[in-house]
């Protein structure tokens, strides 16, 4: 739960990721690599989020941040580090541990003209406040015939962390993704984190930003463009993180990283994997998925949340309802969190969530026609 | 306390010896029967009964107050119009022209009218689903309210909200989730403080909602941060069919925040409500933090239209409240006793209210149902919509 515990937990994957990143530029041409090196910087997801918050707090006096431990403690996961010092207690506000109350208060502030950023220490705790996210924030604009507006951001870490057992390891993408009136984004890397959070703060509608605790400490390149205070990523657009021609892998959040690793490994065997990073859960960029399927004729989905009624299920349904269906050479498979409350023990937890080997296996199975043959 | 309010009120009223002239012109919805502006602005002194207020950790507000005749007639006009409007809603519901839920405020008119008379448009109100009266006093037209109930284009929410979701300027509805409006109200007060607006938010809830956890969460933050929020428990004695005593370990709702001072008010007396709200506005806007206010009132009808309202209380109890504590009868007696208006003039106001409501109903009924294009609007703000919103099947989807 604490930052200290988090940073220790993140130490190993951080090293692994950096190692993986070192390999990434190999695919680039020498010239491109030179340009990339000269203009990019490495930044952790945590710092990218912090930069987004700082820039948007600076840009608009009506933006304020509230949540548990966001101010004096500098954030339970240090995402809000330094913001109290820079913006003061009027705009960076520690709340009591009362999610329903402060989510409701933040929503009321949004209805009356401010632009709150409501941080949940984790989205697991936001279940105490989900009524305000769904009933108070998402629906009021419609119920009022457009007279009342609700520009608010609900953000915090979502999905499984490591070793925190069932109550602290749940993905809510499918929950919020099903609600009209909400927008939902789910960043994977540092550029996603900064660009999507800034877009969420500027959006005039309620937006849920589903971050991932295990990503906070990971470093990714930030392009020159992404370092700018003008940088935003449009909500509702997926990104093809890696082009390929044999199979499409659609994912979001932390799982995108495993998909990229799987694609890298399979490339050595001559398998060309296209990785689509959804970035937005709602609206879902069906066009990009359909376009990719028409090219590769195969698709799997990968997510940390449960499969039942999940993001992958929605993508499967969208494929069925689109002309992409006619292009499929194999059935879609969902790689997802196992249908089990997350266990604590490390070996059991290992079976609960997608990782690189399982993604690699399902890609091979799909290509080998072991599935649906 | 409620039962003898009307009679005790009357004994304490006296007319101000001298008129104040010239006065500012009050706009009123009443027919203009005052002979002159001087007459209309003539002040009437009211002394409230001792029993009007009970307090918790604060000094009682003054029992002396003063209204111009025009203000008093305005209150009366609003109360009878509101009641007439709710009676029209009752009839329309029974005629199956209103769908779903419909919660009437008949008997509780002094709450919204008294509150509105004490505040201005910088002050904000939010309440639960029993919201027709507040929508009206905050400027919503009768046509737009009835139109909303009928689900018509002229409805105040374009026919998309219905009985429980009406909003107007400085009024945030209209919330159908019991208790959820309370922290929302604290948030509106937060905005006032954040923007240095010297105004107050009244966040209303019923005796039923008073036990919701988030009410106490809102109390806590409001006190921590000294928000200009008045938490108003509109105690009409029953949360649906559960009496206050059967739902609440303490029915002294004005004391239940503990660390926030409170005031209990005779909510059947529009003057007492006015005085309490004025006091609350002064309290909260002078930096003293929030306040809890309990307005004791009574609903004559059932919880909603589907509730006859007689299985958990006796017909005698309802009749007794109507005959001894009716807020309109109480105010009417003031007007007569102080020679503000004659019986005939008040009858004329009643008649006019009926006419206004009847006409509004006709106009609302003549309004078409909302255009189908409105089905797709207001989900997201214009210009920020997704490319497409799905209909019942892909073919019905709407592209922006």
Automatic annotation (TrEMBL), chain A:
GO terms for molecular function: metal ion binding; pyruvate dehydrogenase (acetyl-transferring) activity. GO terms for cellular component: mitochondrion. InterPro entries: PDHB_mito-type, THDP-binding, Transketo_C/PFOR_II, Transketolase-like_Pyr-bd, Transketolase_C. GO terms for biological process: pyruvate decarboxylation to acetyl-CoA. The keyword Disulfide bond does not apply. Signal peptide: none annotated. It is found in: Mitochondrion. Keywords: Metal-binding, Mitochondrion, Oxidoreductase, Potassium, Pyruvate, Thiamine pyrophosphate, Transit peptide. Its cofactor is thiamine diphosphate. The keyword Manganese does not apply. Its main location: mitochondrion. Its EC number is 1.2.4.1. The pyruvate dehydrogenase complex catalyzes the overall conversion of pyruvate to acetyl-CoA and CO2. This is Pyruvate dehydrogenase E1 component subunit beta.
Automatic annotation (TrEMBL), chain B:
It holds the Pfam family E1_dh. GO terms for biological process: pyruvate decarboxylation to acetyl-CoA. GO terms for molecular function: pyruvate dehydrogenase (acetyl-transferring) activity. The pyruvate dehydrogenase complex catalyzes the overall conversion of pyruvate to acetyl-CoA and CO(2). It is an enzyme of class 1 (oxidoreductase). This is Pyruvate dehydrogenase E1 component subunit alpha. The lineage of its organism: Eukaryota, Fungi, Fungi incertae sedis, Mucoromycota, Mucoromycotina. Residues 78-372 form the Dehydrogenase E1 component domain. Its EC number is 1.2.4.1. The keyword Oxidoreductase applies. It comes from Umbelopsis vinacea. Its cofactor is thiamine diphosphate. InterPro entries: DH_E1, PDH_E1_Alpha_Subunit, Pyrv_DH_E1_asu_subgrp-y, THDP-binding. It catalyses: N(6)-[(R)-lipoyl]-L-lysyl-[protein] + pyruvate + H(+) = N(6)-[(R)-S(8)-acetyldihydrolipoyl]-L-lysyl-[protein] + CO2. Keywords: Oxidoreductase, Pyruvate, Thiamine pyrophosphate. CDD domains: TPP_E1_PDC_ADC_BCADC (cd02000).
């Amino acid at each position: 739960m604490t930052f200290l515990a988090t940073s220790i937990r993140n130490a190993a994957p951080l090293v692994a990721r950096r190692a993986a990143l070192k390999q990434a530029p190999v695919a680039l041409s020498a010239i491109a690599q030179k340009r990339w090196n000269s203009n990019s910087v490495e930044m952790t997801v945590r710092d990218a989020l912090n930069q987004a918050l700082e820039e948007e707090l600076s840009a608009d006096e009506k933006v304020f941040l509230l949540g548990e431990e966001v101010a004096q403690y500098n954030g339970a996961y240090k995402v809000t580090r330094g913001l109290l010092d820079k913006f003061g207690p009027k705009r960076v506000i520690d709340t009591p541990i009362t999610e329903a109350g402060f989510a409701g208060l933040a929503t009321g502030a949004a209805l009356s003209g401010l632009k709150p950023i409501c941080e949940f220490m984790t989205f697991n705790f936001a279940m105490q406040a989900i009524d305000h996210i769904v009933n108070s924030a998402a629906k009021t604009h419609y119920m009022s015939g457009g007279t009342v507006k609700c520009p608010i951001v609900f953000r915090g870490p979502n999905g499984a962390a490591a070793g925190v057992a069932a109550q602290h390891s749940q993905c809510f993408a499918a929950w919020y993704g099903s609600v009209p009136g909400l927008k939902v984004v789910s960043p994977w890397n540092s550029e996603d984190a900064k660009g999507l959070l800034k877009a969420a703060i500027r959006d005039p509608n309620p937006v849920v930003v589903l971050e991932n605790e295990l990503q906070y400490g990971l470093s990714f390149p930030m392009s020159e463009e992404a370092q700018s205070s003008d940088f935003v990523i449009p909500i509702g657009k997926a990104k093809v993180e890696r082009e390929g021609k044999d199979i499409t892998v659609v994912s979001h959040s932390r799982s995108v990283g495993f998909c990229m690793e799987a694609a890298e490994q399979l490339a050595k065997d001559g398998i060309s994997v296209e990785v689509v990073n959804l970035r937005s859960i709602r609206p879902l960029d069906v066009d990009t998925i359909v376009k990719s399927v028409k090219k590769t004729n195969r698709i799997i989905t990968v997510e940390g949340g449960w499969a039942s009624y999940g993001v992958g299920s929605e993508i499967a349904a969208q494929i069925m309802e689109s002309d992409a269906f006619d292009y499929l050479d194999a059935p879609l498979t969902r790689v997802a969190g196992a249908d089990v409350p997350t266990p604590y023990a490390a070996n059991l937890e290992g079976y609960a969530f997608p990782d690189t080997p399982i993604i690699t296996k399902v890609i091979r199975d799909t290509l080998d026609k072991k599935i649906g043959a | 306390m409620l039962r003898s309010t009307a009679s005790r009120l009357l004994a304490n009223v006296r007319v101000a010896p001298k008129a104040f002239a010239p006065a500012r012109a009050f706009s009123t919805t009443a027919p203009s029967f005052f002979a002159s502006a001087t007459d209309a602005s003539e002040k009437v002194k009211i002394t409230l009964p001792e029993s009007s207020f009970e307090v918790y950790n604060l000094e009682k507000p003054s029992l002396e107050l003063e209204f111009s005749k025009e203000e008093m007639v305005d209150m009366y006009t609003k109360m009878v119009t509101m009641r007439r409007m709710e009676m029209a809603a009752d009839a329309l519901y029974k005629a199956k022209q209103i769908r779903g839920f419909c919660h009437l405020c008949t008997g509780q008119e002094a709450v919204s009218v008294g509150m509105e008379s004490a505040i201005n448009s910088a002050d904000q109100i939010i309440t639960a689903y029993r919201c027709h009266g507040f929508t009206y006093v905050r400027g919503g037209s009768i046509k737009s309210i009835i139109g909303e109930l009928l689900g018509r284009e002229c409805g105040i929410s374009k026919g998309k909200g219905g009985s429980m979701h009406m909003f107007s300027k400085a009024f945030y509805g209209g919330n159908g989730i019991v208790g959820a409006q309370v922290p929302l109200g604290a948030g509106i007060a937060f905005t006032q403080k954040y923007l240095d607006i010297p105004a107050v938010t009244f966040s209303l809830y019923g005796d039923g909602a008073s036990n919701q956890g988030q009410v106490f969460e809102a109390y806590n933050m409001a006190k921590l941060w000294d928000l200009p929020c008045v938490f108003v428990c509109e105690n009409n004695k029953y949360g649906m069919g559960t009496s206050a005593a059967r739902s609440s370990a303490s029915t002294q709702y004005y004391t239940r925040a503990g660390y926030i001072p409170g005031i209990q008010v005779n909510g059947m007396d529009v003057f007492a409500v006015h005085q309490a709200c004025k006091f609350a506005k002064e309290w909260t806007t002078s930096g003293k933090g929030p306040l809890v206010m309990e307005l004791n009132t009574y609903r004559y009808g059932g919880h909603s239209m589907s509730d006859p309202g007689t299985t958990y209380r006796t017909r005698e109890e309802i009749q007794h409240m109507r005959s001894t504590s009716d807020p309109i009868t109480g105010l009417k007696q003031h007007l007569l006793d102080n020679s503000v208006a004659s019986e005939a003039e008040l009858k004329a106001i009643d008649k006019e209210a009926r006419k206004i409501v009847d006409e509004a109903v006709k106009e609302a009924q003549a309004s078409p149902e909302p255009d189908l294009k409105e089905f797709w609007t207001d989900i997201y703000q214009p210009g920020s919509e997704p490319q497409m919103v799905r209909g019942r099947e892909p073919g019905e989807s709407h592209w922006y």
